[in-house]
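Worked example 3 (structure in, sequence out).
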């Protein structure tokens, strides 16, 4: 009897193993028939190049606003398996779909944060000295920066030098850039002096004038920070960007007269997220991208979540990104687009 039982169990195990092997082979066949496709924002081009080179993922780089527009408009397949971008964008896109009565596109409306990098200001020292004269407690923040921008010319700014010409502040484009909407969100929080900013607040005429002044000093295309360092003060007086991009370039800049690095209050981070579509392909993208982030993103200057990695120790980051809710950020993008 025991021999028969063992034989039966062995037969069952063989059948189960055969089914398991067949399932694995079918999955591999399906994987080969379905190449993985990932959309990546330009801010993450270096990481996405690594992903494309070291995995079987096809990577396309495009502005966050372009991907978001397609997500909101489509009532069908998006043609990708994942979207590597910054925090607000998947949530804003899903909110747009919900407003149109369309089903959710991704597995979650709030993808987990993979890595973070603070928003920083790089300011030439003489411009920083002039700005401090116009800021409360001589602390350069978004509100006073926008107020100075509204004066348009340094000759009209207390402490400014007329030979500096127009005030030039480089911001990532809040209408299209992955980080830009986060920067503008932080600026709005500082302007109103509270984190619970609502879309109704943006109807305030003084705030809209303040946004228009800030926009008037901003170039149509934000240069790279390396271009600012190479060209000097004639290109930009103040550069708003990501610590991951600005800090390494500034550390390698050899000249004595170089921009100072500031972390304006409220401390704000751009958060890296991966939104994936339901199904095995989305899960494969999640695993491969998570591996690439763990292995390479700290070397690119980002602060990884879940461990110290090689991230800068200071300043310490708070628990959240420091910006309003996605729906409020979407309304803020419209204010920027409407600004003269």
């Amino acid at each position: 009897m025991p021999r028969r039982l063992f034989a039966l169990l062995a037969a069952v195990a063989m059948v189960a193993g055969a089914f398991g092997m067949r399932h694995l082979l079918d999955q591999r066949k399906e994987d080969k028939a379905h190449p993985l496709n990932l959309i990546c924002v330009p801010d993450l081009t270096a990481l996405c190049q690594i992903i494309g080179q070291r995995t079987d993922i096809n990577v396309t780089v495009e502005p966050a606003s372009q991907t978001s527009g397609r997500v909101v408009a489509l009532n069908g397949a998006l043609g990708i398996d994942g979207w590597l971008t910054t925090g607000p964008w998947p949530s804003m896109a899903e909110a747009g779909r919900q407003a149109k009565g369309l089903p959710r596109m991704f597995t979650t409306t709030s993808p987990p944060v993979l890595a973070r990098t603070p928003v920083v200001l790089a300011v030439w020292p003489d411009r920083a000295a002039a700005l401090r004269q116009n800021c409360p407690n001589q602390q350069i923040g978004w509100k006073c920066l926008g107020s100075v921008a509204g004066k348009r010319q340094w000759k009209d700014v207390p402490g400014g030098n007329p030979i500096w010409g127009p005030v030039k502040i480089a911001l990532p484009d809040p209408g299209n850039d992955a980080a830009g909407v986060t920067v503008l969100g932080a600026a709005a929080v500082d302007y109103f002096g509270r984190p619970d900013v609502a879309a109704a607040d943006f109807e305030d005429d003084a705030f809209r004038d303040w946004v228009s002044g800030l926009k008037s000093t901003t170039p149509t295309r934000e240069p790279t920070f390396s271009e600012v360092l190479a060209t000097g003060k004639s290109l930009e007086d103040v550069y708003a960007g990501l610590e991951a991009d600005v800090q390494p370039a500034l550390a390698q800049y050899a000249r004595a007269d170089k921009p100072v690095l500031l972390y304006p209050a409220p401390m704000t981070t751009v958060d890296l997220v991966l939104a994936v579509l339901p199904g095995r392909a989305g899960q494969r993208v999640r695993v491969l991208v998570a591996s690439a982030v763990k292995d390479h993103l700290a070397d690119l200057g980002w602060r990884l979540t879940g461990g110290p990695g090689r991230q800068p120790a200071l300043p310490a980051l708070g628990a959240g990104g420091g910006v309003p809710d996605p729906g409020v950020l979407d309304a803020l993008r419209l204010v920027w687009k409407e600004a003269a």
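Notes: DSSP finds twelve helices and nine strands in the chain. The chain has two domains: 11-113+271-304, 117-269+318-338.
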